[in-house]
């Protein structure tokens, strides 16, 4: 928990708001969360109460540029503590970033990504029943709705998910439908976003290289590396939504794993060609200025992953760090079961967001 305390202190001291870099010492909101962990079979007996949590956040609002196409946005970092609803797991520390849309309207969308720290996890000798998570550090994702956006008190409804993307098993995950009471003790600072949105009808192209991995064994087996190269094109359907197609080639180390032991095999997928997975996917993209969220569905053309169907889903987020360079993180999964996670860099070309000639550039 020292790490959580350090994050709180750092964000309190160095949260910067606006072009003049004014220091914001106090959080702009406090939130209380309640829900119930929907545990899978084999873990249901561990649920002994409601899921409860509290967090503080430092948010900024923007209504210009690409934010105007989402009727204003609110975004910023948070830290908090969460009880998943099972005493055996203790308190879960959380930190991440939240984006809310439709801040000038009654109802909006809410997206959250971050990290969760579980002090107690599966161990074959000491905790053989704690199969929800097999690692201390896990990814955190929340999707939901917010009601009464533009007020001092609002309500959030949604679903949160905690898992490690199969980097270490067991990885059943923690899925919690929740309700959240959000109180803003002070006005949320207004800021202007840098990028101005995307021009309708424009094309954007990406060539990316990522490195990742997955744990093949069901309970803490061998971690196999994954390297992927993909090229994709996005057509800007509207200033906030794009249509995306991707071609990918993944080198999947888990294809040479013995299905019984999860260990490398000298006879399975012994050549590099046997471990290559060409694939395709199509889907849609949320365009958030410098950031974009791709949600794709596709399939493997050859050498499918053992235990997975040829069809797969893929979620990835790209963040621009230079006019022609992005960093990204991606998760490939099937039926809510993770295949692998990866992260890397992407070269981007085509019309950039700043070249949008029809995007609003000033506050609404």
Tell me about this structure:
- This protein is mostly beta strands.
- The protein has one helix and 18 strands.
- It has an eight-stranded antiparallel beta barrel. Strands 11-12-13-14-15-16-17-18 form an eight-stranded antiparallel barrel.
- Residues 1-23 have low confidence and may be disordered.
Keywords:
364 residues; 8-stranded antiparallel β-barrel; 1 helix; disordered N terminus
Summarize the structure.
The chain is mainly β.
Write the layout of secondary structure elements.
Layout: H1 2-14, E1 16-17, E2 22-23, E3 29-35, E4 51-62, E5 73-83, E6 91-101, E7 107-117, E8 137-147, E9 153-163, E10 174-183, E11 203-215, E12 223-238, E13 241-252, E14 276-288, E15 291-300, E16 311-322, E17 325-334, E18 337-350
Antiparallel strand pairs: 1-2, 3-4, 3-10, 4-5, 5-6, 6-7, 7-8, 8-9, 9-10, 11-12, 11-18, 12-13, 13-14, 14-15, 15-16, 16-17, 17-18
Contiguous uncertain segments of 5+ residues: 1-23
Given helix and strand content, the structural type is mainly beta
Number of helices: 1
What shape does the CA trace take? Answer: flat
Note the gap between the termini.
42 Å
Strand arrangement, major sheet: 3-4-5-6-7-8-9-10
Estimate percent helicity. under 10%
Rg from alpha-carbon coordinates: 21 Å
Tell me the β content: over 45%
Largest sheet: 8 strands, antiparallel, barrel
- Averaged pLDDT: 88
List SSEs in N-to-C order: HEEEEEEEEEEEEEEEEEE
Total beta-strand segments: 18
Quaternary organisation of the protein chains = single chain
